[in-house]
Amino acid sequence: MKTAYPYIRYSSDKQSHGDSVRRQQSLITSWLQSNPDYLLSQHTYKDEGLSAFTGKHATGELGQLMQDIGNGSIAAGDMVLIESLDRLSREDISTATDRLKAILIHHVDVVTLSDGKHYTHESLNNPMDLIMSILTAQRAHQESEEKSRRMRQVWANKRAEAESQGKVISKSCPRWLTVKDDRTGFDIVPEHAQTIRQVFSLRIKGESLSSIAKTLNEEGRLTFTGRVGKWNQSTVQQLVSNKALIGYKVQSRKSVVNHPDIPDYYPVVVDLQTFQAVQQLKSDQFGKKQTSNIPALVNLFKSIIRCKKCGNIFILNSVTVNRDGYYVCSMRRQGRCDAKPIKRKDTDDMLVKGLFHNLDRLLLSKPEENPVSALEAQKQDLTERLTKLVSALEIAPDITEITSRMSVIQGELQSIEAQIKGHRQRVQSHVSDTVKCLNLLNKADRVEFQLIMKRHVKAIMVDTLKRTADIYFHSGLRLFNYPLDRLVDGEHFLEVLPVIDADEFDFNTYRVIG
């Protein structure tokens, strides 16, 4: 398996106390979740307090990273993850470009997490594109840093006034409060306060988060945005964990600099003892049996099997080592959908044995249109326009407009490259993606099946009352009223499909039941 090597750098003391590292680590985590074929390196290259303006970071962990690439410790095909190209260097363009080239020439890829751009050895064939990317990253960072510096000063002044004089920092506040007209404090919205206290009372009594959400919806309780029937497990969880209920002004998660919470900033809605008792409920949930290795917990159709009645995803219910359980609409527990549960084993068997066992033949029977040639032409045109803009930078007195146009074109290029990659992956996988050889009693094989489904299937919309499903493929093929209560003769179906030569197939019209 290929390995991803993160490189994290921040250069100022203020940032070292802020969320620069957290932000970069969050981007890394998100990328890895979207790219499960990469293994995260046990070592993170991290330069703390080293400036990319002076190049000091080149002798630190970045220097070690470059050395490991050069001596082969980081192998060809591996990936370097950085927030943006300015994390490699904000020295002169020539030095920065050389450093990026030195990585790519060893066939080690680079991904910039802020914009998702992927640089490979082939990128060396477009040196102007590399220069433009580095220039854009540097200028964007400089502008962002200046804005951040000004905003930090403004908010520092406001926080000082809030702590010393009790002044309201901004009109932004929790939805159960309103700011007084003279901005000397806040008023509690009585109706919302009553809802909050009911939530805490139910939680203390042992009610689950989903049960509380269902109760609020059944009683017609307004959410803090004024909507009825929209409470769910997530909104209740966020509410009971919010320290603003006991008076604290908590810094924004987007804050660049860490500040201590401001006590007694908001009026107290829930007393401290009750709030702490509810928090204790979370930490007391110990002793549960670890279930991560149970194959049945891997949902073969995760995120693509949905409720036809409301459109929301199905979740698993009542799954144990020996029980497959049920598919249940995720909105049912909150009282927002009354679609009945459906047996998971029967549903999986009908889909897998009747349809997806023949996935390779099914994909070949209705090949996906491949617009790669047209997309490549668009990419070439955009690349030529970028080259001209890069040349214009050398003589332009004001490069603001040019860099803005370059950013737009770069975004279009990124979108086209993603489309090209997606089409190529699906075309290449049509031949290799078969599920017949997978053992679905094995966890690893179930995960592989899950990935194959996501590559080729957009959605499986299940009608639990009729016990049928409408199935939508990325290729454009649509199957309607696929039966889930009896097994389809997949061989017969695949013989009929090419004959009718259509993008749609209705199982109520063509009877191919075994």
Automatic annotation (TrEMBL):
Catalytic site: 11 (o-(5'-phospho-dna)-serine intermediate)
The organism's place on the tree of life at top rank: Bacteria
GO terms assigned for molecular function: DNA binding; DNA strand exchange activity
Keyword DNA-binding appears in the UniProt entry: yes
Recombinase domain mapped to chain residues: 174-289
Keyword Nucleotide-binding in record: no
Lineage of source species: Bacteria, Pseudomonadati, Pseudomonadota, Gammaproteobacteria, Enterobacterales
Ranges for domain Resolvase/invertase-type recombinase catalytic: 3-162
InterPro entries from the UniProt entry: DNA_bind_recomb_sf (IPR038109), DNA_bind_recombinase_dom (IPR011109), Recombinase_CS (IPR006118), Resolv_N (IPR006119), Resolvase-like_N_sf (IPR036162), SSR_resolvase (IPR050639), Zn_ribbon_recom_dom (IPR025827)
Single GO BP term: DNA integration
Name of the protein described by the UniProt record: Recombinase family protein
